[in-house]
Structures
1.
Amino acid sequence: MEEVQRHSVHTLVFRSLKRSHDLFVSNQPIVNLEADEKSEKMRFNIKARDSYAPIFHRVAVSEQEQKKAEYFNKSDEPITKGDEMALVPSTQSQNDQTSSALLPLPTTTHNTNQQQLIPKKPSSIPKPKWHAPWKLYRVISGHLGWVRCAAVEPGNEWFATGAADRVIKVWDLASGKLKLSLTGHVSTVRGLAVSARHPYLFSCGEDRQVKCWDLEYNKVIRHYHGHLSAVYTMALHPTLDILVTAGRDSTARVWDMRTKANIHTLTGHTNTVASVVTQAANPQIITGSHDSTVRLWDLAAGKSLCTLTNHKKSVRSVVLHPTLYMFASASPDNIKQWRCPEGNFVQNLSGHNTIVNCMAVNPEGVLVSGGDNGSMNFWDWRTGYNFQRFQAAVQPGSMDSEAGIFSMTFDQSGSRLITTEADKTIKIYKEDDEASEETHPVNWKPDIIKRRKY
């Protein structure tokens, strides 16, 4: 028996297209490509009706109102126009007509109170709110490797960082002094999360381990086994005892915090899942991946609700707005804002032309993005206005290539920004108290193109 030769999908599709072309190629000379006048007129009318049907309706209504006004408000003074006699409305009746018409047609008289046929729409892009510029005020050294992650505890008294030296360090937020060092990971620590409902600190790393630390005893009390490769990111559900982790095995796993059970394995991404966030409302889990997609997940069913494919390059960061029902995703092409729960596109934030590793947003509407080359951009969330950008200072003695920003987070008040960087330092930024709208004005020019939906 002769074996059937297998072809790729691309070859089969190409052959199908060629067959279709050969089938209809004989009819091409018969087709009249020149559109006749009747079809052109019909096409124009259809397009005009689709685009301007409400305006046509308003014009028709205004014409009917004008005819009624002319009929009921006739003047008794005849005038001669050529050889014919006609009755014209008086000045008072014209004023009545103008006031009673829904949308008066433009006349040749130069009347200052004359209404336009189409009212001018106000600008759809609001002016951005003024934000004070941010400045560096503290640099903390102590790690022996790249600092990859940070998390602030709910009481806003301390924060934890994880680095490539396999150590988790706890720092006092007010003074910047080291409080505690936790060892146990055997590879780079890539993610941290502090529970707001329990005295627990969760960590994950490139050693495929997910650990739960009891901060009352400063030791590991649980391990969550299941990931097949490095675990890059994690998030805690705000109201449920649920932990979500994701990493290089292209999956996001949902864990019961207490029983260590793997509730769901969220599959669908085709490359590393670099960022995951959780919220109490739907969608309760949002993931960003190196496959250039953002997925919204149904936590109850453990399935993907929808996939956002607008990005052209890998999505390394997803961040939720603390007060608005929105989120943002970052990629080297653009930072995009979305509206929950369907993931409707809002606008592009263009200008941070590098690999964007991390983002953070505070309740005041300040969105910060950190790049792989050490650049930081500060945006107004509502308008997408980039009000500040600068290059983070590198620790003396470091190479220029060690300028990457790996993670960033605001403290609970939103007044301090913590960044972890490739020069093995932790930097803390705050707003410049001496700045004002006069010293740092808003240089705002609305960009219509960036808000185009596609």
2.
Amino acid sequence: MKEKIDQFFGITKSGSTYKRELTGGLTAFLAMSYVIFVNPIILGQAGMPKDAVFMSTIVSSALAMLIMGLWARFPLGLAPCMSMNAFFAYSVVLQMGKTWQEALACVLVSSVLFILLAISGIRSKIIRSIPVSIKQAGTVGLGIFIAFVSFKNSGIIVPDEGMFITFGGFHNPNVIIAFFGILTAAFFLVRKNQYAVFLGMIGAAICGLFIRLGVSMDWFTLSESAVASLPQLPAGSPIVVPTVPMEAMLNETFLVAVKNLDKMLSADSIIVILTFLFLDFFGTATTLSAAATQVSEIKSENFEDNTRIYSADAIGSFFGSLFGTSSLSTYIESVSGIIAGARTGLMSVIVAILFLLSAFLYPVLSLVTPAVTTPAMVLIGIFMMQNITKIKWDGGFEEIIPAFLIIVMMPLTGSIALGLVLGFLSYELCMIFAKRTGEIPPVMHVVALISVAYLFTL
């Protein structure tokens, strides 16, 4: 059996081991696990039942990762995208007035279109036509964006009236936890330990438990809200049968999208569908490109020609809409598993299994807080930042300006899609200004038009 699994995934052939795949899977799961609890909170603000979303998040993510692992055989994790669920809840439902049932139907239709683009190979052709500097700038911008968000979630940076953001201060215990984890990860990284990401999170979790112990021993005092945000060991039994969320999903969200397909012919529904498609298409393209750069053994052109990799997340979104959650996407956090040493689809299968088990063992996830995941996010940002050398800085300002806008605007606007849109449009215009119109790939003209249409939806 062990030999058959090895041959199926190509573990030995890829230079990996079972230990590295297991460690990579566990690392990726810990880095992604927050979505299990955050997604129900965000979609709950759109009126969706939180118990149902909790279970649909787990089930759809697990199915998507099984597809990625068993079919595409590539080490990536998939789950409901944080930017997409925010668009779903705040823009589509709360601002546009759509019901969450209609919004799910929009996700369903956009995912079907996404699958057709992916399986037909059109998606990979479009991505290959995007200039290298644009793609690499997207990778760098995404890395900074991820690190920025992790700094914010852990309290390292906070809002400031004068300077917009400022250092949060060490009075917040989560800042101490995050920095301790970063230093732990840095220690192992400079010593070329392939488990630096995982060990960084372990260090952060241990630090958090020590702080909680210090409070209980009256060594120092923290507010109740601060103590509640700290990692903690599960109270009582760590095993809980998820009967309630499973029944909620089956009774309240399962197949609701299908029942609302008759409302998809209105103008505003079509706009929402195309916007979902646009965000998922280019956001996932950037994430996948970033993930590919972390596997030196694979050539970028072979990666881009792999329609299975580019179809897995589209199929995942389809299942997500059926079970009751917003669009799924490849998680940049799962790159931590690749950095930890994973090289095959076995990692994705392991993450899928851990997601399913989390429905029973979710009290254990009380150890995983935003501060605990910060070391992983920071290291991902560091690895992705290295791609800045692949941008053609000597290719003229017609390539420098779009790259700069993408890198800067992604974290500053908090929108991956907007950063890409501004990069696409500025590239088109700068090439025209430079009288190099003939060098613009035909696909980029279409992308520019779509980008303009997207700006009108903001």
3.
Amino acid sequence: MAIYDEMRAQLQELIELLEQDTQYTAAVAHGAIVADQGTAQSHQQRAARIVELKRNYGLK
């Protein structure tokens, strides 16, 4: 059952990262957050992890 727990944890991480990405993008678009080097770097790291998890599960 450990494999299913790992899959569930990774899919939960993917959902949380997608929610964070959506919130960040909306905040920048509405001017609530000014994208600086720190926030852009965090966004880039989050996006890379999203791509990695999606690729792992064969998602587009």
4.
Amino acid sequence: MTAENSVLAGTLGERSGTSALPSGRQSVRGLDFGRVFAIGFGMFAISAAWAIYNAYVPLKLKDLALPTMVVGLIMGIDNVCALTIQPLFGILSDSVRTRWGRRLPFAMFIAPICAVALFVVGISQGVAITVLSVVVYAVLMAMWRAPVVALMPDVTPSAQRSKANGIINLMGSIGAVTALVGASLLLKRCGMAAAFAAGAVIIAIAIVALVTMVKEPAEFRRGSCQDVPRVRPWKRFKEAIVPRLHLKSDERRSFVLIMLVIFLYTIGINSLETYFTLYATHDLHIRASSATSALAFYAAGSIVFAVFAGIIAMHIGRKATMSVGLGIAVIAFLPMPWIGSRELIIPAALLFGIVLTLVFVNALPWIAELGGAEHTGTMTAYYYLATSAGAVISPVLFGAIEEWTGEYRWIFLYAAVFFMMALSCMPFIRHGEARRTVSVAG
């Protein structure tokens, strides 16, 4: 029995209330750390690219004398693509079969063009070319991100997915820190174009490592095409907007609430990711290079706690772990508009990275639990529908608040309010915890 079929058997067995495996000695399946770390190279590239994008694109657009609300609209373009294109390609990848598998080809052929687009964003001098490059970059990133992220649930048993996602997020955080620290040094010495060029190089190197080190299971490579149903991608995408899942009523209620929680906390987190460097430079009068270095401590917090966040969830549950993270974030964020300072910004960024890791490390495994092993791409698409919808709304919404108040410090109060709203949904969610996944031994 393959890894993927073993996961599916355990899932089906629990749903039906009977064993999906033949009689015999059974044991809990372990985690393939080598494969998980290899998949982490994809997240390394994604996180590195987005770290540079979120840190420097707002600064570049401001240098072009664009109003904050327009900056928010442009920064929301990638989120619109993530809301539309990204889920479609996540769903589509479930039904793709090539000689390399069903997920890897999206990274192999699309990511290199993304690297070129990011480089052009850095060297362009006019508004039109800059915005066009941002659009191309956003569209292409949306086409390969969900398939790469869906690799993890493909090859990981249910009970181990939080731990695996912690390792992958660790790799992503290392990518973000590497990108931000390196880009900060390049910004000081060579200018902003060099920082974007570094992001492009990181994408290229990390994707080469991913494709070289990861081999998809045989059933997902060409040769099993006869077992794959023909699908109409647009029809599948419409089904993602209005989910048609074979769930009981209480499971469906949990699904909707999980989507709502992810949507709400994303609105809060996205405001920090989009406007943090502007908060540091505008409100605290910190140099752009120093602001980026401070942002690196946010990613460093994720490095410190990424794996622990998954381990904690294995002991106390995903919902409880995420609730703790959101609760601590609310307490920490509420006073920040009044006590924020140059001296406090680095320890605060480190703390925020740690507590928010408790949330996003467990969110994808949480929602993926309601799908089967053959539909991890679809469930990943649902996850990105929720995150992308929040990310589309947040830059424009807070941009309007900043235009009204004239200050960026309110991002912390703004985030805390949405975290509290997400917390209020938690008591009503009854499903999404890890299942005991078993395989036949002997």
